[in-house]
Amino acid sequence: MTDQLTPSEVEPEPPEGSFFGDLTGSGRIDWRSNVLIPALAILSALIVGALIIALGDLDTLRLWRSSPGDALGVTVETVADAYGALFKGALGSVNAISETLTRAAPLILAGLAVAVGFQAGLFNIGANGQMLIGGMFALVIGFQFDLPIILHLPIAIIAAFIGGALWGAIPGYLRAKTGAHEVITTIMLNFVALRLVDYWLTIPFFQLEGRTDPVSKSVLESARYPELIAFINPRYRVHLGIVIAVLVAVGVWWLLFRSTIGFEFRAVGANPDGAKYAGMNVVLLYVAVMATAGGLAGLAGGDQVLGTLGRGTPGFVGVIGFDAIALALLGRSHPYGVVAAGLLFGGLSAGGQAMQATTDVGIDIVQVIQALIIVFIAAPALIKAIYRVRAEAESTQVSQGWAT
Amino acid sequence: MKKHTRLIALLMALALVLAACGDGDDATEGTVAEDGGLICEVTDVGGVDDKGFNASAWAGAQRAAADFGAEPKVLESQAETDYEVNINSFVDQECDLIVTVGFLLGDATKEGANSNPDQSFTIVDFAYGEGEIENDNVKGLVFNTDEAAFLAGYLAAGVTETGVVGTFGGINIPPVTIFMDGFVRGVEHYNGIKGTDVQVLGWDPDTQEGSFTNNFESLDDGRAFAQSLVDEGADIVMPVAGPVGLGSAALANELGTFSIVGVDVDGFEADTNNSGVYLTSVLKRIDNAVFDAADDALNGEFTGELYVGTLENEGVGIAPYHDKADLVSDELAGEVDALRDDIIGGAVSVSG
Questions:
Q1: A22 — pLDDT class (breaks 50, 70, 90)
Q2: N or C: which end of chain A has fewer CB within 10 A?
Q3: Which residue in A56, A214, A315 is closest to B79 by CB distance?
Q4: B174-194 and B145-159 are packed helices; what angle lies between their axes, rounded to 10 degrees?
Q5: Beta-carbon pairs below 8 A across chains A and B
Q6: Does B208 contact chain A (CB < 8 Å)?
Q7: Which fold has domain B145-283+321-345?
Q8: Does the distance separating the beta carbons of B76 and A356 come in below 8 Å?
Q9: Chain A contact for B6, CB < 8 A?
């Protein structure tokens, strides 16, 4: 793209063949790279996962030597049982769907945080830290003030956004002003946030009375996400968080693809020099991008604190912020792709728990499958070769896909 | 990890078969039908392969299950948000006993027990207050680990050459800090008798403050925390943090400049990669306690009565010195043995 183009006339696009653009999907978009490749990546990961399940079954491996026929039968049965349980645990009952949605909500929000960064050419590895700080902000509002739910919950959610945004803005500012790479600064700020939360949870302001371990006071009922279907069975934990996550995804789509600032986000991602030449304030943009990303991650932290857990502990974020990177890649950095990927990962998480409970296959296999999906996404050439997907050059672009 | 579990399960099955073949008459009784019961364990986030805490409970559950031809099952918690879900899925499977491993599962177990009054639970490291469990269906398993740690502290004070020993914990919760309390008091006891001035870094029993990784997972933290204690002169370190301590042991093995006091299980046997670094281990026989609880549950004799492991009932103890025996003089070993008797007899108080 040349410097002469004015921003309003073209879609920002990184240079052809850019690895970052290819990997994150923030580059040129077509249905192949957005739907077909991810779908094939998931399929491939499930196949390799099946092989690993088979290899983990020592008894059957021994059987292969004596009677391969029986062994094949047992292996097929083991894998079918495991994947059957996985599927059932993700979608097979009201409880399964409730669990999938409960787990998907923070994944979607954190995935959006990473995707917004990708769209602006920034690698936000700091979603975990931003979630922690956002969650702690929400926590303070949640236990410290006693307000009617109509005020309390929205204020707590906004606090989560602000907390994450402040934490995210720091690496944005450092990048813009000093050139410090956001990969390094966001990773490091994860550790700072983790230790800060450890510390906060042991001071009397936060700590639950009568406890010596780092456990916070509970969020008041008026700041908790209402449970959606608990009236059917109190065990169904799905709460308002999933609705908020989907609404936020729509909002992010509008921001990125329908608003001027979103255009500027993507322009600076595609070509920072060009964006600067076109008169955009790159410093401000980097800070705004990272603050937005951080705020979204903060909402994910708020989802855990105000929704699923109802209090703060050192591990309330788990590894959601890192899974978010994977699912932003799988979702090709598009808000709706992130929602789809978030639901998939939520399903894998809920299904993995059920698989662990009903079969002998460990939950670790779910992480293996998630990792394999990303390996295949990151190596589209591999997928194209395996499944003989025709190279892009051979066909004209049929549609712009869902990203425009 | 699962492979490991499978191997153990396989060996146990093999052992069962061999035992069954051994004496013909009992064989029919020994091989119980399919529905021989279900012993279910929910681990904390350390996972069942932590070579300590969770693994020890799992060993007890497997042993009891094998005795009865029951099936042992385990659910690993990946995050704190999993505790409730994992307990609920075991409630659905109608386990004879649900074993929840660790203080951190205290709230989730209480909730599960009170909403499922007919389900038997046993929880490691948690003693509920009067009336907290409405139906008396939770058996708490707690351990006076400070008695054993006191011995380890005394031993460490006698062995150290730098005059400095150290400890750190996972999370500042009673079942962790009780190790550190005992260890520090054991060192103080040694100083009092011998007129020495051995220092303990990492824990102050009076203020109940010290050095904590705030997790039970990170082996890197285990290295870092041990390194900083060694930098300050410690030549014996007791990590009370589950698998985190495996990182400390790996560092000890690489540097060769300090020894480790293991916790929960005998590190020499469990951590075979680094067995040479363990001076001793503060044993907490979670396996035996879980075995007894599971045994009772399968026999229909389950009660919600609290179990307390002590030196006297061998619920706690210290491991042999193995490869480090050269560092322990006969005199010191004798003193430690005598001290054990004094603690059991009440002549020495471990609470300082």
A1: low
A2: C
A3: A315
A4: 40
A5: 68
A6: yes
A7: Rossmann fold (3.40.50)
A8: yes
A9: yes
Tell me the per-residue pLDDT of B207-223, one tens digit each, with 9 for 90 and over: 999 999 988 888 999 99
The count of residues in chain B is 352
DSSP B31: S
Rounded to the nearest integer, the mean pLDDT of chain B is 88
Closest residue in B to A314 (Cα–Cα): B214
**B73 CB neighbour count, 10 Å cutoff:** 21
- CA distances to A171, A189, B189 from A185, rounded to whole Å, are 6, 6, 48
In the DSSP assignment, the letter for residue A303 is: I
Task: State the pLDDT at residue B342.
Answer: 95
Q: How far apart are CA A213 and CA B101, in angstroms?
A: 17
Task: Count CB neighbours of B231 within 10 A.
Answer: 8
Report d(CA A352, CA A83) in Å as an integer. 9
Nearest residue in chain B measured CA to CA from A318? B79
- Long-range own/partner contacts, residues A34-37 (CB < 8 A, 24 or more apart): A34/A332, A34/A334, A34/A337, A34/A401, A34/A402, A34/A403, A35/A401, A36/A389, A37/A377, A37/A380, A37/A383, A37/A384, A37/A389
**Element of type H or E holding B209:** strand B209-210
CA quadruple A49, A53, A55, A59: dihedral, nearest 10: -170
Phi/psi for A396 (5° steps) reads -80, 160
Contact B6 A309 (CB under 8 A): no
What is the per-residue pLDDT for A132? 97
Residue count (chain A): 404
The pLDDT score that the predictor gives to residue A106 is 97
Residue of chain A minimizing CA distance to B208: A212
Candidates A404, A141, A151, A166; CA nearest to A293 is A166
Q: Is the pLDDT at B26 greater than 80, yes or no?
A: no
Burial of residue B321 (CB within 10 Å: 0-12, 13-18, 19+) is: buried
Distance from CA of A382 to the nearest CA of B (A): 30
Q: Evaluate whether B35-143+288-309 and B145-283+321-345 have a shared fold.
A: yes
Interface mutation vs chain B, best among A53, A58, A211, A236, most B CBs within 10 Å: A58
What DSSP element (H or E) covers A347?
A: helix A335-358
Band the pLDDT of A55: cuts 50, 70, 90: confident
Sign of CA dihedral B199, B203, B207, B208: negative
> First CA to last CA across chain B, in angstroms?
41
Note the helical H segments in B73-121.
Answer: 82-92, 106-115
Domain ranges of chain B: 35-143+288-309, 145-283+321-345
Mutation to test the B interface, candidates A356, A359, A360, most B Cβ within 10 Å: A356
How do beta strands B38-42 and B71-75 pair? parallel
Tell me the Ramachandran region of residue A368: left when phi exceeds 0, alpha when psi lies from -120 to 50, beta otherwise: alpha
Determine the distance from the C-alpha atom of residue A278 to the mean position of all C-alpha atoms in its chain, rounded to a whole number.
32
Query: Domain B35-143+288-309 carries which CATH code?
Result: 3.40.50.2300
pLDDT at A18 over 70: no
In this structure, are residues A333 and A119 in contact, taking their beta carbons and an 8 Å threshold?
Answer: yes
* More confident of the two residues A389 and B161: B161
- Return the HEC string of B274-321: HHHHEEEEEEECHHHHHHHHHHHHHHCCCCCCCEEECCCCCCEEECCC
